[in-house]
Amino acid sequence: MLTKPVSVLNFPDLKEEFKKLWIEYSDKLFVADAAIYDLPRRGELNYPTQIGICRINPYNMHALVTDIQQRYNEFEQMQHLQDTIDLLKAKGQIVLQGPPGTGKTRMAEQIADRLAAKPAHRKLIQFHPAYAYEDFVRGIVADTTSAGSLRYQAENKVLAELAEQAAADSGNDYVLIIDEINRANLPAVLGELIYALENRGKEVDSVYGLGADKNRVLRLPSNLYIIGTMNTADRSVGHMDYAIRRRFAFVTVLPDANVVPEGPARRLFEQVQQLFETHMSPEFDMHDVQPGHSYFLVKDDSGLTLRQKLEYELRPLLHEYLRDGILLPTAKQQVNSLGA
Q1: Is the whole model's pTM more than 0.70, yes or no?
Q2: Cβ(273)–Cβ(290) under 8 Å?
Q3: What is the pLDDT of residues 196-239, one digit of tens each?
Q4: DSSP line for 73-98
Q5: What CA–CA distance (Å, rounded) separates 163 from 177?
Q6: Which of 63, 138, 203, 292 could cross-link with 101 by S-S, CB 3.0 to 4.6 Å?
Q7: What sequence ranges are listed for the domain AAA+ ATPase (predicted)?
Q8: Of the candidates 88, 92, 90, which has an alpha carbon nearest to the alpha carbon of residue 107?
Q9: What are the boundaries of each domain within the chain?
Q10: Are 152 and 141 in contact (CB under 8 A)?
Q11: How far is 123 from 180, CA to CA, in rounded Å?
């Protein structure tokens, strides 16, 4: 029986339980005795209550509410992250999609860190229009023999290399992050691996054979997870065709006002949000183009100030949106008058 609240740090056996529930195990939490009652559907509530566990100074109420809200937001983010990890484990490959600045790549790296314990078990690459099958899966490279003559031979690239490592290490998970996955010609880049994505462990034949026996076999093991990121605002690149889209699960990552601190940054975020609510072309979806929260986050000790982010990152993006017809001409004056 506890006579007064005691720091949770006095109960180390609770640490693992807190971790499972995504609760921070720190000196900010206390343990106290509590009574649980079954409340009647009717009648008066007449039960003894515990008084004096905590006295809140009314002048600190705002700080307390802010801290509780922040912890709740962090819990929601962790829960969303865990839900996405569960989806990735079930599907094998996912795409994090959303407008610029919503933290898609950061979220992909957080997932990779949780799944793949060692840095060697996770890789990040970025697709671009010139990216080819020979850069991603397997291709021909020029080499010289000991006699100095030139020879050509097939060589595994990033995906096939990581797949081989994962297949030889079934006790650990491996993660490949493909940033800007839709910037490449995916049917050409993936080739026969479109089939292998949903048939993990089954053999497919590559167009290139390895070694003296010209072994063409490729397989994607079940412990290799693939995370793509996709900018939904970029219409200059092709979208995934239906055959490839069916192999991936899509998670939408949207701007989140809750992670933007109160004050000038939150006010600027709300101004920009209102801009899209009132001046966006009906041809576009706000969820595809509204700049994300990272444009409004400022580090206290380094990096760009909020004013610099507005002048050199956010406002140029909004002017680009005006030129592309995402924002209507009526938004121009409001874009120019935004202030941090």
Answers
A1: yes
A2: yes
A3: 999 999 999 888 888 777 888 899 999 999 999 999 998 666 56
A4: HHHHHHHHHHHHHHHHHHHSEEEEEE
A5: 13
A6: 292
A7: 90-254
A8: 88
A9: 6-75, 91-252, 257-337
A10: yes
A11: 14
